[in-house]
Amino acid sequence: METVEKKTLSNLLRGGRLSSSRSDVTAYTSSIESDVVLFSAVVKINQAHLIMLVEQGIVSKEEGSFLLKALTGIKEVEVKPSLEDVHMYVEEEVVKATNEVVGGNLHIAKSRNDQVSTAIRMKLRQDLIDLVDVITALQEAVIQKAGQHIHTIFPGYTHLQPAQPITFAHYLVACFDVLDRDIQRIQDVFQRVNKCPMGACALATTSFPISRERVAELLGFEGLLENSVDAVSSRDFLLETQSVLTILSVDVSRMVEDLILWSSLNFGLIELPDAFASTSSIMPQKKNPDVLEVIRARMSHIQGNFVSVASTLRALPSTYNMDFQEVTPTLWESLIESERALAILAEIYPRLTIQEPSFEKPSYAFTTSTELANVLTKKYGVPFRTAHKAVGALVSHLSAKDVGNHKVSAPLMEAFLKETAGISLQIEVKDIEEAMDPTYFVKHHDVRGGPAPKEVNRMIKTRGQRLQASRKWRDYMRAEQSKAQKRLARESRAYESSERSHKTSSR
After folding, report:
1. Which of 150, 243, 387, 505 has the most CB atoms less than 10 A away?
2. Residue 349 neighbours by CB under 8 Å, 6+ apart
3. Which residues contact 263 (CB under 8 A, 6 or more apart)?
4. Which band of pLDDT confidence, cut at 50, 70 and 90, is reported for residue 133?
5. HEC string for 41-71
6. Does the pLDDT at position 9 exceed 50?
């Protein structure tokens, strides 16, 4: 049944080309629920635009003062199905506070097309700064934990099989570096987000003599998105941001997966803090990594959001399409879930209990085998591939007997060299003992980036410097946004004061 809604907040757009609206249609196409987060940005855009219109002589100072005062008095959006979007809500409220003669000029030389793109960019740039803040908090937690475990020998894995000894600190520095590249990608996309589309209007700019540069300055942008078609048409900045968030989500998922695996009794390498675990409703012995599992699942939502955005944008014609409004909510969801996951992990890492394993256990016993082959090559001149084969045969023999590395001896190694390669050697016992010692292994893997405590300690110090640099960027960008907001508020108040002065002189 058709329902005609005569008094909707999109009523400003009715009575011209269109005669009526339906409340069910308005409710279906409305973006007001997801637009609420753009309210503050939309008000600021209107303020900056009005100041520019007055400065350019397009709107009188008196009208501009009335309009700016009306904008200041608008209350936060109350979500109603009848509201079309936040842009029309703001304009309607201004018209209510003034009249259509004055309020109707609010929309001179702008469109929802350039305004919504600008509002999204304003919110997004703030969210990206906040995201860097949360990532650096996690990095700090990770690097502080690393400082406590420079000498904690820890098994490294390849193919999920015990591979070589490292230290837990060495692993944590790797986590820091992964997150550091995520920050670099955020900083990179920030440069393209922080461009102003205002003044592009619907798609072809305007015949009014506006100053796009002035609006961009008042809103704290680093320049314009110059071409007007591109300004209203492009959503690649959303797709690029989703891409950055997707990579971040993959990185977080892998970090979480490590913790989930290592906290299981089969590995027994770490213990999670009780506050971030759960138990079974029937099995009293269980300590389940529920929080980490939820993070892992929600990171997959972010990856799905990237596909959703790409699928929505892939076949759209140039300039503005209503499909765009379906894309933005997924961006906010990805940002929220990223921040929440990172914040939780920043609480978990400092509280991890590390349980250093015994490398005499059969499962870890032969993780130093590479060094045994290295010694045969470095000291005894055995070709590495030959040494590799002989050591492999030795490991196979001892593994079949389910014994540890304490059974590796110089005579046994000599026997396997003779059997596999026909080489006769006399190997010093000390060389075997050192080669099979995980502490010796770690200490002597001291090339740049390796697990040796001295090298890891150096890396931790340099990562501290990188952490400071990221926070310096965060602080600078926040300060720039704050300066722009204060400047806009100051200039807006100045015009509002002139409106009060005008009223006083009129009396």
Report:
1. 387
2. 138, 141, 142, 145, 172
3. 269, 270, 271, 272, 287, 289
4. very high
5. HHHHHHHHHHHHHHHCCCCCHHHHHHHHHHH
6. no
Active site residue 10: no
For residues 468-497, average pLDDT:
96
d(CA 406, CA 187): 51
Q: How far is CA 467 from the centre of its chain?
A: 16
H runs (alpha helix) in 80-111: 86-97, 100-103
Can you tell me which residue has the tokens 């690097």? 143
Q: Any alpha helices (H) in 290-383, and if so which ranges?
A: 290-313, 324-348, 369-378
Residue showing tokens 């959006």: 77
* d(C-alpha 47, C-alpha 196), whole Å: 15
Per the annotation, the verdict on 280 as an active-site residue is yes
Tokens of 305: 């959001």
Confidence of residue 412 (pLDDT cuts 50, 70, 90): very high
Task: Please report the pLDDT score of residue 190 as a whole number.
Answer: 99
pLDDT in tens, 181-196: 999 999 999 999 999 9
Q: Are 165 and 156 in contact (CB under 8 A)?
A: yes
Render 441-479 in DSSP notation, one character per residue. HHHH--STTSS-HHHHHHHHHHHHHHHHHHHHHHHHHHH
Structure tokens at 160: 């999920």
Euclidean distance between CA atoms 118 and 127, whole angstroms: 14
CATH number (1.20.200.10, 1.10.10.10, 3.40.50.720, 3.20.14.10) of 114-357 reads 1.20.200.10
Taking only the tens place, the pLDDT of each residue in 357-402 is 888 887 888 999 999 999 999 999 999 999 999 999 999 999 988 8
Chain mean pLDDT for the chain: 91
Exposed e or buried b for every residue in 387-422, given b needs 16+ CB within 10 A? Answer: bbbbbebbbeebeeeeebbeebebeebbebbeebbe
Measure the CA–CA gap between 362 and 293, rounded to whole angstroms: 30
| Beta carbons within 8 Å of 54's beta carbon, 6+ residues apart | 60, 61, 63, 64, 495
Domain boundaries along the sequence of the chain: 11-109, 114-357, 369-436
- Vertex 265 angle, CA 157 and 299, to 5°: 65
Q: Which two tokens stand for residue 292?
A: 């980490």
Give yes or no for residue 36 having a pLDDT over 90.
no
Per annotation, catalytic residue among 280, 311, 318, 396: 280
- CATH code: domain 11-109 is 1.10.275.10
| Residues 368, 437 contacting (CB under 8 angstroms) | yes
Residue 84 pLDDT class (50, 70, 90 cuts): confident
Predicted pLDDT at 23: 66
